[in-house]
Recover the amino acids of this structure.
């Protein structure tokens, strides 16, 4: 398993639209992909659960990937989250 | 047929005349019924089609919104479409149908309610508001189920089949999107307030809409001739020929007026003699922003930040506030936005900041007085505003409420001077003039205040010592009292002489007598509610400033508000102003 800590900096956090981008990207990988905030952890492939983590600008989250394509998944999704602007 | 008149609440202004058409959304399955196992599979098929229909409709709506009110508004609907079409969301609903044996409407509503409640437990205000989105999505899917069930797929043929006043308990976006709008003369509903979907939609389409009691709604039959709003807030059933004639004439006049107003949208608020006045909008929450898109204000003259604080269970932290302010700035893309610092008092307390009992809260610990007593809140809000400014690259205008002493503005100015270099934001600082003390001493704030904005509602009640809400005092509270007008005029003159920008953000600015007198006083900017922008602009564009200044000079010498009102009314008709 690989993981990375990420600071969410886009102004509106992981609300519907940015969360949807992450879900769409995650679903392209066969690895299990999770995002955790504090002690809550949810699949990054589930839009509603991801929204319910309540991730806002300034939050630190941990992205973890486990599976055959875990490194690729980690790299591209971490870049996606860091590059969010809305 | 006997003519009858039903009292109504207007949700969308305008008159309408036509036959009633009672909207029937088909047979409903009693909510409590448990479906036998053999019916569940077909119920699931129905649910699946309804979800697909809802997603399709949301995407169409998003496209329409992007075209008509701007791309940023389309995202709301795109987000709804993402959720409605989400696989896991469907699995949750599927379980309710297949395992619990509930109907598809029930599944859509309970699953969305469950999710809404969970969202509403989150700390972040923006995310919590998404709870309401789930409910909207649930309703939309349920309404598609109903349409499919009744077999009346209105997407195919024309509905209404002929021009009609549509009468329905409620109107969901799902229903209205399928309507053939040229055939919809008006709406009569029995539920929903002025901020319901139906009301907002009706207003955005300029279709008259009224709400009546459920009993009155049930009394309407297909083909009944109806008139909406011949007199405001009235629904006439079986009106006589003369009333119908009057209604036709009124509808024609309204149509001409609307066309004329809409033509003003992109024109400047400029008097006949060419003086440009900034016409700004008042706003208080993200929900107001789409409205702003429709009327093109020159900026926001009053953004109330209370909403953000009062809807929270705990103090919103700096990142939350920053994100919120940044979104407002982004939406206004470069046009000025005046944020009023948290204006809290004993009459509107925060759930998490205890407020002592005060025997006279309007003369008590409110506005800047409260903020200086809660320096953490003040500092956090200033920081967030400046961080938002830095992140968007736009200047913020910060307005201090309830100023009565120079020391208050000095304290805020000092804090700001310390915060600005750290954040890299840009700000103008201004004072709200709502106490007679502030109005009379504007000159003392030179160098401390970059602009003033008159809060006409409070200035009036403090000057006249008359509570606006007290029905025993009706008639005493009047912005047109010469004492109030003189305070406004002198504050405006003094501020201009000190190089401060001058604005006003109270209801007075959108009342015809207010618009005229304030323009004459020389205010740079009038801030009114979004729905009043176009009408205020029409008035300004028909105004001769020199004549208005003569009027102002006369009314300042009058003894009372009644004579001011009379003089102004005569002026309006003499000058043939657009009101």
């Amino acid at each position: 398993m690989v993981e990375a800590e990420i600071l969410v900096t886009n102004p509106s956090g992981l609300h519907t639209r940015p969360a949807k981008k992450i879900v769409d990207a995650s679903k392209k990988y066969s690895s299990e992909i999770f995002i955790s905030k504090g002690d809550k952890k949810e699949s990054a492939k589930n839009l509603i659960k991801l929204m319910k983590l309540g991730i806002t600008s300034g939050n630190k989250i941990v992205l973890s990937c486990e599976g055959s394509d875990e490194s690729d998944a980690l790299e591209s999704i971490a870049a996606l989250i860091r590059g969010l602007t809305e | 047929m006997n003519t009858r008149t039903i009292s109504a609440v207007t949700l969308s202004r305008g008159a309408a005349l036509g036959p009633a058409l009672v909207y029937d959304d088909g047979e409903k399955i009693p909510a409590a019924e448990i479906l036998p196992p053999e019916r569940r599979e077909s119920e699931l098929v129905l649910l699946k089609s309804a979800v697909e229909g809802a997603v399709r409709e949301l995407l169409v709506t998003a496209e329409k919104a992007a075209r008509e009110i701007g791309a940023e508004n389309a995202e709301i609907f795109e987000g709804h479409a993402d959720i409605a079409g989400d696989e896991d969301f469907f699995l949750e609903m599927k379980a309710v149908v297949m395992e619990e044996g509930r109907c598809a409407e029930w599944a859509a509503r309970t699953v969305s309610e469950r999710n809404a409640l969970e969202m509403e437990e989150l700390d972040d205000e923006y995310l919590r508001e998404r709870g309401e989105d789930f409910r909207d999505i649930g309703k939309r899917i349920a309404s598609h189920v109903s349409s499919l069930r009744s077999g009346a797929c209105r997407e195919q043929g024309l509905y209404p089949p002929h021009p009609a006043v549509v009468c329905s308990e409620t109107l969901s976006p799902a229903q209205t999107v399928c309507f053939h709008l040229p055939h919809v003369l008006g709406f009569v509903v029995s539920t929903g307030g002025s901020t319901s979907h139906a009301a907002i939609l009706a207003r955005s389409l300029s279709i008259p809409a009224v709400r009546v009691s459920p009993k009155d709604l049930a009394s309407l039959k297909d083909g009944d001739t109806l008139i909406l709003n011949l007199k405001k807030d009235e629904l006439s059933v079986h009106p006589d020929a003369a009333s119908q004639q009057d209604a036709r004439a009124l509808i024609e006049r309204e149509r001409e007026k609307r066309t004329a107003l809409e033509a003003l949208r992109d024109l400047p608020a400029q008097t006949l003699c060419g003086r440009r006045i900034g016409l700004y909008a008042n706003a208080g929450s993200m929900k107001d922003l789409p409205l702003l898109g429709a009327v093109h204000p020159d900026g926001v003259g009053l953004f109330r930040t209370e909403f953000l604080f009062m809807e929270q269970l705990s103090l919103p932290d700096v990142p939350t506030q920053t994100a919120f302010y940044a979104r407002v700035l982004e939406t206004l893309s470069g046009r000025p936005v005046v944020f009023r610092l948290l204006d809290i008092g004993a009459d509107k307390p925060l759930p998490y900041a205890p407020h002592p009992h005060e025997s006279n809260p309007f003369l008590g610990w409110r506005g800047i007085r409260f903020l200086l007593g809660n320096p953490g809140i003040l500092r956090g809000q200033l920081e967030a505003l400046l961080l938002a400014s830095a992140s968007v690259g736009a200047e913020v205008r910060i307005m201090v409420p309830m100023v009565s002493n120079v020391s208050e503005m000095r304290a805020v100015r000092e804090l700001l001077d310390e915060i600005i270099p750290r954040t890299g934001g840009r700000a103008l600082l201004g004072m709200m003039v709502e106490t007679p003390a502030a109005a009379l001493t504007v000159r003392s704030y030179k160098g401390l205040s970059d602009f003033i904005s008159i809060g006409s509602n409070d200035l009036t009640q403090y000057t006249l010592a008359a509570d606006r809400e007290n029905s025993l005092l009706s008639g005493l509270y009047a912005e047109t009292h010469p004492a109030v007008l003189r305070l406004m005029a002198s504050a405006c003159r003094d501020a201009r002489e000190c190089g401060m920008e001058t604005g006003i953000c109270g209801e007075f600015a959108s009342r015809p007598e207010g618009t005229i007198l304030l323009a004459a006083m020389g205010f740079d900017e009038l801030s009114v509610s979004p729905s009043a922008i176009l009408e205020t602009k029409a008035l300004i564009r028909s105004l001769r400033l020199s004549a208005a200044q003569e009027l102002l000079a006369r009314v300042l010498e009058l003894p009372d508000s009644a004579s001011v009102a009379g003089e102004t009314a005569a002026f309006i008709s003499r000058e043939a102003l657009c009101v």
About this structure: Confidence is low (pLDDT under 50) at residues 26-30, 152-156 of chain B. Chain B touches chain A through 30 residues (CB under 8 Å).
